Amino acid sequence: MIPKIILGKGPEATRRTIGYLFGKGRANEHIDPHLVASWNDFAPDPGRSPHRDPKEVEAQLAAQLDQPVKMLGDKAPKYTVWHCPVRAAPEDPILADAQWADIARRIVAAAGIAPAGDEEACRWVAVRHADDHIHIAATLVRQDGRRPKRDYDQRAVQREARQIEVDYGLRRLKPGDGTAAKRPTSKEHFKAKRLGQDATSREVLRLRVRRAVAAAADEAEFFALLEATGVSVRLKRGPSGDALGCNFALLGDTNDKGEPVFYSGSTLAPDLSLPQIRRRLATTSPEPAAVRPGNPWHQATNATERIPHHLTHGDKHAAQGQLIALGAALDLLPVTAPAALKAGLEQAAAVFERATRSRIAADLDSTRVLRRSVQAIWRDRPQDRDGAGFAMLLDAALTAVAFAIHWHRTRQHAQQEAAAEQTLLHLQVAYAQVAEPVLASLASRAPSPQTKRRYAHHLQQAVPEHVERILHDPAWDALATVLAEAEAAGHNAATVLDQALGQRTLDDARSPARALTWRIRRLGERHPPSPRAEAARATPVQPAAAAPPPQPQSARRR
């Protein structure tokens, strides 16, 4: 059940609200509008007065609601109308008018509009439009002339809605922490539908701004990327001329006056204000130390594989930073993905966006490698032989998201946990599409049974606790192939296997053979060590001879 509070102001605010509630709606979506409850239980009902002009009844109802406001004259508050649509989920049972009336009374009581038993409370009505929702409208002056005590009413109403879901057996939504992005309004939805668009301008802008933040190395490139993707930017400047904030608009998205419709960054999402964007960009700004050259697919995968360690052993601020970096990586992956994967990965990125924000301040210092390597993939489109680079990065991302679920769960971040769970489902589908052909191709080139027995012996010596799982894993032949390829490139199979096992435990691997396949593939593509280095590694280091104990000064004199 989703309640949403909207405030109205102006001399005709109440009349406009009542006119909308009993009208046809913006797209004829209002079906049989009628009162289900009111402050006194006998307010005039424009939907149930067959012998009177509905407009006349609307005016009478608005006047009665407005009476306490009019009594204050110039001392009336700026905002005089409290409007709260309350919508049930599509799968919820259809509630009777009496049930919706009870829900409305509980909502206005929780909000401080009309506490139970308070005869001098604000005047309000609840209007039912269709089977699945009502609208509550109230005026924000009590009948005794005082203001209602509605501090934190949005939070209180959401809390009451969660209890109503339990009491009525409705779909139970996850409690939030105030860090979710603002939902599109019904007006924005109707506009998108009218224009034949799948998403609202707010949602499209949020995606494009997030991608620009993920891709840009600095502020100048960020604004250039926005312009290239059809986003207009209007900066808000202080007296000094410095940019303090920015608003975004889609090209071609205009209001009824033909003016661009701008959204401030903070209304798109709490982390898209200009100060927050600058903090994110600072983690990709050039540093004095040069970044080590290498395969960006491997670098991104290695950095992603370290996220679970940050989530389980790092402090909460570093962990929150890692989730932000993972979200940025997911934002850019659809741009570089094969066509068949784009839609699924875009859904994964859009859903995981909710899992990247919490009340915990983020430390982004440890996220540079991941952000830069993913940017290199987006910018340079490095060669990805047979799609293995994409597959191993998705495999690492799957594990990272699974750890994100647990991290949010332990901190009772219900919405973030649910978002990460949905993300995992989308990524699993995409991973299967890209990984299965790669693993099948590797398995088709498996080495001889004698070579595989030798590798199995290495595994038995190195990880006896996992050897049975690995040898019975469908990816065992693919693992044997990459070990053979590493040997052909000059590596020692046992050494490479030990290095792969040392990177991360296999205890939580869904498929240990597959995890080792991706690790050894990366290790095998590095330059093999020289014979002298191999000999030095194989030769045990002899302990240095102990130095004789220092003699006392008197002994040295003798």
Automatic annotation (TrEMBL):
Annotated region (Disordered), positions in chain: 520-558
Protein name per its UniProtKB record: Uncharacterized protein
Regions of compositional bias (Low complexity) in chain numbering: 536-545
Classification of source organism: Bacteria, Bacillati, Actinomycetota, Actinomycetes, Kitasatosporales
